[in-house]
Every structure is written in C-alpha cells, then in structure tokens.
Design brief:
four-stranded antiparallel β-sheet; 124 residues; alpha+beta
Length: 124
Amino acid sequence: MARCSLFIGIPLVLVTVVACGRVDPYIYAPEATSRTNANFGKPLKDRGEVTICYNRYRTDPAEVSAMAVAECGRFGRRALFSKSTFTRCPLIAPYAAIYTCSNEDPVSVSTGGKAGANTEFKPQ
C-alpha cells in the first residue's frame, strides 16, 4: 500500500510543481502589499525605478523590455536598463531586470552623449 501511494504521490507532486512553475513576468512591487507603507492602497503617482521578475527559460527578453517601457511610460518617463540581479525576486521567477525610469534622453544618460545607448535588456 505504501509503495502504491509513493508511485502516485511523487508524479502528482511533480505535475503540480511544473504546472505552478509557469509564471509570466511581472512587476515586483512589495511596497504595494505592505500595510505599513504610507501609500498602501493608493495609486502610484510616480516611479523612479521598475523591477521586472521573470524566468529566463520561459520569458522573451523583448517582453521584459516592453513591460518596463510601458510601466515607465505611464508616468511620462523612459525605461533605461540598469542591471540584472538574483537578490530581489522569489524563486519561482528568480531573475530581476531593473530599469530606471528617467525623464532624460537615453543616449545622454547611458553613454555620456555618445550614440549607441544601452537601453535594451540583455538576459543573464
């Protein structure tokens, strides 16, 4: 009986983990759910930075960039890729692409006025 439960239980757990492991990229905003935050439940008025959490094996880099451009664009700003990290997002989507939302021209900000600004996200 125990062996039968083992043969059924292990595949069931694996199927559940795989099915739940499919996470679309999302904007990481822990302050939005913190009831101790003074702006809890209020719409965001401005954004200086946006972090997109994603799974690099299941997410197209263009999708991550488009999300950042759209989010910064809500506030009349441009998304400039800043860095990638593994220290912000939960394990289900462990990669974080961090963008700065800027009012400045992306060429002058990232390259000191030179052509070839690095505004595109490049996954790790």
